[in-house]
Amino acid sequence: MPKLLESSKKDMDEKKLKQEDCHEDTLGQGVLTLTTKRIAFDKTRSRIMDFSKHMGETILDIPLSDVTHTWREGLLMKKACISTKTSDGEQTYKFGVFNVGGWVDDIQDAIDDLD
């Protein structure tokens, strides 16, 4: 279980909606998690010798209220993309997930449900 979800158990209003191994263009391999309040990306470490995978640190922990735009991108290598507000302006993340359309729709639905 990602560190984000372990530490947020105090907040009973937050529920995990979706989770998947993925690749982010600049951050590399990890696990993408969507909850009712945030998007998190946890770095993973893999060992080839025993095919094990271990959760690393939480690289992204973005409140859904900070997501400004969601979209699909790519023809062959499809990506679920988000833009977020940061202290430096805006940041874009592109996640290679299995069901791109499902992720984009679910992120947008979770954002809409905040209101």
Task: Name the features.
single chain, PH-domain like, seven-stranded antiparallel sheet, disordered N terminus, 2 helices, alpha+beta, 115 residues, GRAM domain protein, globular
Describe the structure.
By secondary structure, the chain is of the alpha+beta class. The chain has a single domain (3-114), classed as Pleckstrin-homology domain (PH domain)/Phosphotyrosine-binding domain (PTB) (PH-domain like), CATH 2.30.29. The chain contains 2 helices and 7 strands. It has a 7-stranded antiparallel beta sheet. The chain is globular. Mean pLDDT is 86; it is low at 1-5. It comes from Marine Group I thaumarchaeote SCGC AAA799-N04.
Strand and helix map with partners:
Elements: H1 3-7, E1 16-24, E2 28-35, E3 38-47, E4 52-63, E5 67-73, E6 79-86, E7 89-96, H2 100-114
Protein name: GRAM domain protein
Region (Disordered): 1-21
Organism: Marine Group I thaumarchaeote SCGC AAA799-N04
Short synopsis of the structure:
The protein has 115 residues and is an alpha+beta fold. It has two helices and seven strands. It has one domain: Pleckstrin-homology domain (PH domain)/Phosphotyrosine-binding domain (PTB) (PH-domain like, Roll).
> CATH superfamily, called what?
Pleckstrin-homology domain (PH domain)/Phosphotyrosine-binding domain (PTB)
Distance between the termini: 28 Å
Number of strands: 7
**Number of distinct helices:** 2
Q: What is the element string, with H for helices and E for strands?
A: HEEEEEEEH
How are the strands ordered across the major sheet?
4-3-2-1-7-6-5
Count of distinct structural domains = 1
The average pLDDT value, as a whole number, equals 86
Which structural class best describes the helix and strand composition? alpha+beta
Shape: globular
Largest sheet: 7 strands, antiparallel
Give the proportion of residues in helices: 10-25%
Report the CATH C-level class.
Answer: Mainly Beta
CATH topology: PH-domain like
CATH architecture: Roll
What share of residues are in beta strands? over 45%
Radius of gyration: 14 Å
- Low-confidence parts lasting 5 or more residues at pLDDT below 50? 1-5
Region (Disordered): 1-21
Protein name: GRAM domain protein
